[in-house]
Input
Amino acid sequence: MVLANPSGATAVPNAGNDQPGSSPAPTANPAWTAADGAALYGVDRWGEPYFAVNERGHVIVQPRGDRGGSLDLVELVGELQGRNLGLPLLIRFDDILEDRLERLHAAFERAIAQYGYRGRYQGVFPVKCNQQRHVVEQLVESGRRWHFGLEAGSKAELLIALSLLDDPEALLICNGYKDRRYIETAILARRLGRQPVVVIEQADEVERIIAASQDLGAAPFIGVRAKLASRSTGRWGSSVGDKAKFGLSIPDLLATVEALNSANLLADLRLLHFHVGSQINDIAVLKDALQEAGQIYVELCKLGAPMGYLDVGGGLGVDYDGSRTASGASTNYSLQNYANDVVATVRECCESHGVAVPTLVSESGRAIASHFSVLVFNVLGTAAVPGAGQQAATGEALIVRNLRETLTLIEAIGAGAEADLSRLQEAWNDAIKFRDDALAAFRLGYMGLPERATAEQLTRACIEAIVARLPRNGSVPEDLKALGSALADTYYANLSVFRSAPDTWAIEQLFPLMPIHRLAERPTQLGHFADLTCDSDGKLARFIDAGQVKPLLELHEFRPGEPYLIGMFLAGAYQEVMGNLHNLFGSTNAVHIRLAPGGGYLVDHVVRGDTNAEVLEAMEHDPSQLLERLRIASEAAIQRGGLRISEARRLMDHLETSLRQTTYLQE
Output
């Protein structure tokens, strides 16, 4: 999607800072437009309604979706840098968070009206999805009009929820492992006017809940999590079935009802919970689970439990690649499809048995939080083996001469439809043989380093020449087709994958990655990203491709001295809390942005990234002690004559400054 000067699309006026990518779109290739750039990266598929591309070739953010107002992301980044917020920078758009809540509730309200459902929807946000204080506070405040609640999966998350959730009608779903103190806290919170629902997920929790209730003379609202037999798909398919980590089997469920009844606590059993995976990609999975859970709910009512709530858990998926399919990075349903199926299926189950329909609850954390943050990082440089650029040297080795002659032969072959694929294949076979011969000669000491370098350059030049001659359409031999990947460059990114995008490494999660400027300029390179860590897994080398996965991304030529900015989108769920300190790269700078009533934007909150001192302290190193050790070492070096006083002062200045700075590279 390309928007030309969208209404309300103004950032705070630039205060004189140079903006990366703010120059007019290149005119060297008028056939390529910003619309082509948007289509190449699929912005109109995965980005709607929050992200688009303007005529300047910049990504724009529309935090309120189709309700108006937008910001030029490139200009915004430049102005935030002017506020001393260096890259990499995590930008959180609180308006998107609020808009996601509105869309979720609107979808259920439409479904409830359409199917004549005599109940309501009341959602909760799973705190584990993003525990950042400003994020949870914003959700609680924005969701107040719907009595939107929270879900806690640990004692620490329970403390967060209890302190923030002051709405007596909002639900506080208590999941996870529970000790006696956890349960007693929930019981006492009910006396505070909260609505905690302690969900029994393990059979041994029943006796602890009964004992705590008897000791305190009060009980929490109680829920039970059913271990469904329905099958799920995708990475989280094991969340259901006999091997599921949490949930009660049907025999355990019946035993729980009997135990609660014997303890006079059955009247407090109000909720049935189930979960079929964090990212449901196929709507058929949800339908099967809903049918089974609906029948369990009906049976619990028949056993005498008052019930009243059915929690369908998480799983509402995000279309990361924009393909709208049942692939692992997409979904074959819309938000409205999801709400319709939940409402219609539960209504059918209950009404056919004469049971009152429950209040519907979901824990749709991924679908709420994914869109609201964008990580922007800069490229530090690139690496590639250059092609041949020099003339043949006198006395050049025979192997090198053979490679040079092979290149000349390739260059004489026609290109495109005129290409002779059999001759190109033969030439490539020769090039491979000569390249391997050159390496063997170097290993045996018959070839020097300069000639080996020339052999590598000539090999790349052969690849470039072959790729340039391959036809765009038609059948091409597989090994020739794969040569394009050999031309890929490594783009060095100023970020840590393990800190900012751990799921790309741990579970091969796909997130949309693209330049946020120069989109009106045709990209001429193929590449992948390497991060700052000293780990071979620290890379981004899997990219969305309309339902498929590609190992390389179309990128622009890196121009030394000019910023090249990359955005990672749809990563607002789980990434921050699951990131680690690999190589002691800490959290990035983060900022909360909200559209201003009169246009432009407001900077609501700034969260500074970890400094080097802070990550050292996290590993139990004392920065002051570290400095003192180095001061003593510098004094000893001065005494030996190995270090001048001025050099020692500069060294200590650098060390002290580094401790105060972010862990990422400074521009």
